[in-house]
Amino acid sequence: MPVDPLWNSTTATSLVAQRRPGALIRLGREHRTWTLAVLGERIGCSAATVSRLERRSRVVDLTLVHRAAAEVGMPRHVLMTSLAPPLTAAPAGTRVTACSRDAQEDPMRRRTLLTATAAAGPAALLAGLDEALAATPAPTSGLGPLDSRLAAARELYDKGVHGRLLAVLPGLIADGHRAAASRQDLDQARLSAVYTLSSSVLSKVGSYERARLTADRARTWAEVAGSPLAEAAAARELAIVLRHQDRHGEAQRLMTSAAAGVEATGLRTDASAAAYAQMLCTLAYTAARGGQRGESLAMVEEARRSARQLPQAPPPGRLFPISPAGVALYAVGVYWALGDAGAALEAGKDLRPDQFPTAERRARLGTDMARAWWAWNRPEQTARALLDAHRSSPGEVRDRPAIRHIVSELGERHPHTTGVRELHAAVVMAG
Fold it and tell me: What does the pLDDT read at residue 97?
């Protein structure tokens, strides 16, 4: 279908460059001579809502923006570009320095600062990521293929090395955008994966507003790429953020839709079957956090059935590395979320760290069991489980606000219990 010349006009091009999707929607609406009320009726909202959508520079409801853009005939690549962060004005190579010695020292100074910042912990690195999200950095050079760097970044996540991961994300975002400019589906899906990984680690460290932003961008690029699995991964991250913001109903609806989308692929491969099982696990936990016991337990059982044929050790690089043991670990979390600590402990009693291939999952076994022991009022077992988790991945205990809070409470309420002093020194004093 040919593109309406409107979207190649000077006005449209300027609005895209200014990153103003709302103004582009208004341009399309007026081009069709529709009133605010007409567009509102077509997309299921009031004229006032359409007016706010068109006037705002910040996207509040990404789903509504997509619906309105489609209704006025905006091409997807135009919307995609208008939603992306602006590019920096000058590439790194054009930066003026005072003398040749300054130019030679710049790379060394950048490495020194990066090392110092990484040592300061994840919180100190969020400012750099904020800058990358506000204005895409200039592309990097000499750091190797994007695929291998993304795989290395995922390994950092799997090890719970959150500070180093936050440090490399700005460069991945920059180079992901450069690659996605090709408009090739694979490159766009890869950029979605970068934003999905960003959302994952931001949720880990409790930065939920940033995680919401990156999850929205992951969904946008996955939709543009037309990748059901990338869309599912991005939707899962957004649901996790919504859950943390106590928006359980929205999170559950989103995950239900995502699970249905994956199921519609036919589940003919292990990768799609793993995605479906993961969607069900996340849906189960989301329903549990919303207090829906029957639905959450039914979803866990369906996830068990779906994961039955999956390998015990997922192959490296799989987008959804769920396994039968992984589903059982989710059951621990589901029972804990339902307020049934005894059932959570029963569900996890036969799980062993060697059933999980990554440090992040092994540590998650420890933290999930610790939450159940803590709810069961067993401080010694709680401390022991958290020490096990810390040995697997210090970041999983140190960087997650909810787990760090348990460590602090243990130190305040049970300072003489076996393991508490050691745990407190390792997590709070060293953090």
Answer: 34
DSSP per-residue letters across 329-356: HHHHHHHHHTT-HHHHHHHHTT--GGG-
Helix/strand/coil for 87 = strand
**Among 33, 43, 45, 44, which residue's Cα sits nearest to residue 68?**
43
Strand partners, 87: 136
- Contacts of 326-331 with CB under 8 Å at 24 or more apart are 326/281, 326/356, 326/361, 327/277, 327/281, 327/300, 327/303, 328/304, 329/356, 329/361, 329/364, 329/365, 329/368, 330/281, 330/284, 330/285, 330/300, 330/303, 331/300
Phi/psi at 87 (5° precision): -80, 150
Tracing tokens 């992306």 back to the chain, one arrives at 84
Residue range 42-97, pLDDT digits in tens:
999 988 889 988 987 767 677 788 889 999 998 876 787 787 665 444 333 333 33
Per-position DSSP letters for 53-81, written without gaps between them: HHH-SS-S-HHHHHHHHHHTT--HHHHHH
Token pair, residue 98, equals: 């005072």
**How far apart are the C-alpha atoms of 130 and 259, rounded to whole Å?**
31
C-alpha to C-alpha distance for 131 and 225, rounded to whole angstroms? 25
Helices (H) and strands (E) in the chain, counts: 23, 0
Which residues make Cβ contacts (< 8 Å) with residue 144, sequence separation at least 6? Answer: none
Whether 193 and 230 have beta carbons less than 8 Å apart is answered as yes
Contact present, 244 and 208 (Cβ < 8 Å): yes
Instruction: Give pLDDT tens digits for 302-327.
Output: 899 989 889 888 888 788 989 999 99
CA distance 335 to 126: 33
